[in-house]
C-alpha cells in the first residue's frame, strides 16, 4: 500500500521522484523519504521525514540534494510507528545499500535474529531494514570467498530468504546508475523513456514522463540503467513482458480545478460510464461484445454458477451485480469477501465461473481468491480498471472499466464503472442463455446509453442539495442507510463512503430487517438515508417501493430524520419525510448508478464540513496490496 518511485537517466532526479511521490501519496502518507546518487557523490544521500510528503519537501528545500538516479517512498505503516527513523529508504550497516519496500516480510524477526548473530545492528522497528542487511551479508559472504557478486545477484539470493509479499526498489553506492526492482505480490511498473527509465508502484507516479510501461509479474526482477531495462525471474533467467502503451491522459490524474480528487472523480462518472460502454454493444444487432475473453460463448453459456470475490466498494458492486445477473441471465451467483473466500473451504465446481472485481487489479486478497478459484478448476474473469494488472493477466478474460486513474482513496467512478461492466456481463450472459431476445436487449442497451446524461442531471441538481444537507447533518454521530433488493448494496456503499471520509459511524441495512434490531437505534438524533426509487414498469419494484414507504413510516414514527432518494415525479414521499433528493426515472437494475451519486456527494460535503482529509482519510490506503 506504500508508494515507490525510482529514476535513472540524465535529469536531475529529486524533482522527478518528488513529483512521482506526490501523485502516489494516496498509497501512503505516514512518512516519506528519498535516496539519490550521482557522478559527484561517492555515497548515497538519504533524506526522510515523518508525516505527509510536504514535510519531506520542506526538508529538501532547506538542504537540497543533487543526483541522476534514486528511489523514493511514501509509507503506509505496517511494522513500526510512522516516525522519521522508520521511514524508508532503509540502509544496511555500511550505508552502502538502500532499500524501499511495499509489502510485509512475515519472517523478518527470524531473519533479524540471524543477522544480529552475525554482528548486524538495527536502528528501526521495521521489517524492511532486514532486507538491506540481508543483501549486505550476502555480498560480504561472497567477497570473503573471493567470489564477489553484483547487486542484482545478491538481491536474487536475498529474495529466496523472504516470506511474505514485497515490491522492492534497491540502490548501492558501489554500483551507481543502477536500480533493482523486484516483485512478489504488490505491484511494480517499469517506465521506458528516451535514455531514462522509471519504477513506480502505480501508473500515475510516472505517467507525466512516459506512457510506455512494463507491468512486472510475481517473481520478476528488473535491472534499470541508463542503457536500458533487463527483465529476469528470481533465478536470473530472462523473461519477456509486453511493453504496453497507457492510454490515460496525464491531465486526468490532476485535480483540474476541483478542490479534491474525490469531487473531480464524482463528476467524471458520466464520462467513465460512456468509456466503459464504448464499442461494447450494438443497438442494431442487440449484441454485447466483450472482446478480451479467452472463454468462448459456449463455455459462458454452460456456466453452472458464478462466484464473485471482491473487497470493499468492489464487493458492493458485486452484490449489485448478483441481482443483475440473476435477473437477466437466471444464473445463480454467490458473492464473497475476497479476504474470506479461501477460508470457507469452497466446493469445487469446474463449471462455475469465477468473477474478480478490483479497481487496481492488484488487491492481495482478490488475487488470492482468484488463485483458489483456479485451483478448484474454475475459469476466471476480471473486472479491472488497470490494463495489464495482475488480476487480468492471471484471468481467462477481462472486462476493463476504462474509468481512468482514480486518486481519491474513497472509490467513486471505479464503482459506477464496475456496475456498468457487470450490467454488460449480465446482458451477455442473458443473451447466451436464451433469456434475452433482441428486442429486450436493445431496450436495456438504450436505457444504459441514457444513463450518463441522467447522472449529469443528478450531479447538477443534487450537488447543492447535498451541500446544504451537510450543514444540517455534519455533527451527527451515527447514520443509518436502508435499501431493499438491489438497493441494499447501494445502502452499504453509501454508508461506507460516509465512514471512510468523515469518520462518522454509519451502517447499511436491508430495510426489511428494521424490526429485527435497528429500530432500537432510532431517535430524533439519527439521520436515516432511505433508497426509495421506483420503476413503474416493474411490478416487483412497485411492491418494494410500497414496503419501503412502510419502513419510512416506522422511522418517522420514532422521530428519526429521513433523507430519501426518490424518483422524479414522486409526490407521495415528500409528504412523509424531511428531505428528498430526486433522481431521474430508470429501470430497476440501473437505478444504483443514479442513487449512489447523491450518497457520494453527501459523504463528500459532510467530510469537508468536518475538516477531514477527503482524498487521504486516516488509516486507509488506495490499494490494499498486502493481506
Written account of the structure:
The protein is of the alpha/beta class and 627 residues long. It folds into 3 domains: 3-246, 4-Layer Sandwich (Glutamine Phosphoribosylpyrophosphate, subunit 1, domain 1), CATH 3.60.20.10; 252-436, 3-Layer(aba) Sandwich (Rossmann fold), CATH 3.40.50.10490; 453-618, Rossmann fold (3-Layer(aba) Sandwich), CATH 3.40.50.10490. The strands form 4 sheets. It has an 8-stranded antiparallel β-sheet with strand order 3-2-4-1-10-9-11-14, covered by helices on one side. Helix 3 (108-117) packs across helix 4 (129-144) and helix 7 runs parallel beside helix 13 (413-432). It is globular, with a radius of gyration of 26 Å.
Fill in the keyword field for this structure.
single chain, about 625 residues, alpha/beta, Glutamine Phosphoribosylpyrophosphate, subunit 1, domain 1, Rossmann fold, 3 domains, 8-stranded antiparallel sheet, 6-stranded antiparallel sheet, 17 helices, about 35% helix, globular, cytoplasm, glutamine amidotransferase, EC 2.6.1.16, GFAT_N
Total DSSP helices: 17
- How many structural domains does the protein architecture include? 3
Main β-sheet: number of strands, strand sense, barrel status? 8 strands, antiparallel
CATH class of the largest domain: Alpha Beta
Shape: globular
CATH superfamily of the largest domain: Aminohydrolase, N-terminal nucleophile (Ntn) domain
Structural class of the secondary structure composition? alpha/beta
Total beta strand runs: 24
Strand proportion: 15-25%
**Per CATH, what is the topology of the largest domain?**
Glutamine Phosphoribosylpyrophosphate, subunit 1, domain 1
Strand order of the main beta sheet, please?
3-2-4-1-10-9-11-14
